[in-house]
Amino acid sequence: MSYEAGAIPSLSIICTIISILICFGVPLILIIVFKKKAGSSIRSVLTGAITFILFALILEQVSHLIFLVIDWPVSRFINAMPFAYAIYGALAAGLFEETGRFVAMSTVLKKQNNRGTALGYGIGHGGIEAILIGGLSAVSTLVLLLSVNASGMAGYLATLPSQTADAMSATILSLYSTSGFMFLVMGLERLVAMALQLGLSVLVFTAVKNKKYRYLFPVAILIHVLADFPAALYQKGVITNVYLIEGWAAILAIFTGVIAIKLYKSILTENDQLDTTAFTQTDTLAGEINEQ
């Protein structure tokens, strides 16, 4: 395999650009469509974005510092045991993000009963996550791809300090050997995550606005945990097939979406008040919730 200038596959660059467009473009499109058609304040979008930053990128990271970074018996156990790591990571993500969603809808968005509020929150939450987690990473990857492609592996490494060059060698080698379509996974992963965030927002919104359906809050946590658990195992090398991870996440997103759509159609509003009679009793999570 050649590591000279111009040897990076064009497909890798193209797929990375598509991922960037997905991560930055889809949230923007959703916000525009939401503002025109949902009949709800843009405040819910901003609340979703800010809450994600507060609960996932700040508070959850404090938890990670305690249970993963600081050296003590618990952190050593979690880091040494892949399944313990996966359980902790999935629970942390589910608890912090869904609790943040519940708190925000119960306080900041307390008076916003329009069903579009649920979608707005989901767009804000999933959108900022796509930009900060997927988009920035994809931009960084594109810059690296273009830089290495311009000067070749040896030429690029020569511009770096020796210690940095040693650390970057394996990463740069992977740019040549990784299938171009793998660079598209960054964007597709964010699409699935945004769909899941929209669905979970509808579930939690329903739990907040209708005490009869308060059980949907722990259900949302469970779905979130189930979505993140395989991904955590992938980080530990227990699961090595990324398509299996994304396929599982897509199945959960579709499952959650089906329930969310039925809930959304049943959340009827009159003068911004929920019509709680629109809901029918459900015997199971996937049971039918019919519009009245």
Shape from CA axes?
globular
Order of helices and strands: HHHHHHHHHEE
Strand content: under 5%
Strand order of the largest sheet: 1-2
Biggest beta-sheet profile = 2 strands, antiparallel
User: What is the overall pLDDT average?
Assistant: 90
Number of DSSP strand runs: 2
Number of domains: 1
Distance, first to last CA:
63 Å
The chain-level structural class is mainly alpha
Percent helix range: over 70%
- Count, helices: 9
**Unreliable runs:** 268-292
Q: In angstroms, what is the radius of gyration?
A: 21 Å
Secondary structure blueprint with pairings:
Blueprint (H helix, E strand, L loop, with lengths): L9 H28 L5 H27 L3 H8 L1 H25 L9 H43 L3 H16 L4 H28 L6 H20 L6 H25 L1 E3 L2 E3 L17
Antiparallel strand pairs: 1-2
Helix pairs in contact: 1-5, 1-7, 2-3, 2-4, 2-5, 3-4, 4-7, 4-8, 5-6, 5-7, 7-8, 7-9, 8-9
Q: How would you describe what is shown here?
A:
The chain is globular, with a radius of gyration of 21 Å. The chain is mostly helical. The protein is built from nine helices and two strands. It starts with 9 loop residues before the first helix and ends in a 17-residue tail after the last strand. It has one domain. Strands 1-2 form a two-stranded antiparallel ribbon. The longest helix has 43 residues.
